[in-house]
Input
Amino acid sequence: MISLQPWAGARVHLTEVDPGTGALCGNVGLHVGDDEETVRTRRAALAAALGRSVVWMNQTHSTTVETILPGESGPVLASGARLDRDGAGQWGPVDCDGIVIDARGWSRAPCLAVQTADCLPVVFSADAGGVVAAVHAGRRGLLGGILARAVDAIRARTRGPIRALIGPAICGGCYEVPENLAEASDLRMPGIRALTSWGTPSLDLPGAAARFLTARGVEVTRDGRCTLEELDLFSYRANPACGRQALVIAAASPANDQSLRSSHA
Output
């Protein structure tokens, strides 16, 4: 069963590890050594079940945020560049780590997906779900300012409150790092440094992101699950050969699209 759950005027869905054996069961990432045809089939099934196409990113831990608008024959970047089709129900991949989509007046606008396996997946909603975003914020992207870029890109499209949902990620009690990295990171983003549950230096990415966004006037909701601790979520720290889950957000539909109700894949 796949469904989009209501949140902040938009709807969200998180893929998870499929029952079975192997590190790639349920994987939706094309860059982790999984069979390409199998991944594309999973992505197509996800789009079909959600009732909308999905825009994927080519995530590289950058701080690049792109904005998507409706075009004559499909979604286009704000620069005017058209998105490529990448299989049934798929668009992209867009070379960025954050996507904003202005879906106001755009019936059945595509969903946005962010892939992770310990990094932060963050989705945003503004204007009652008319403008939404999906952001991949790993350590480098978070420290580099990708969340600020995303908030600025949303505010360039619409005024009013912004809400953010921080999805499951590795927690500060598990994300062990060397002492010098913890110190350097805390200089760039004070408060990000933490301790593991066994007393060694760590980074608290979800906590730091929540504090940063709150200070920028964004209302934050957190899914507190730790990817390293939850068996139904992929974790690179637990297994470097693992797959990727996707946090997917769908903008509000002006047509009150009934296909966003629960459906079977």
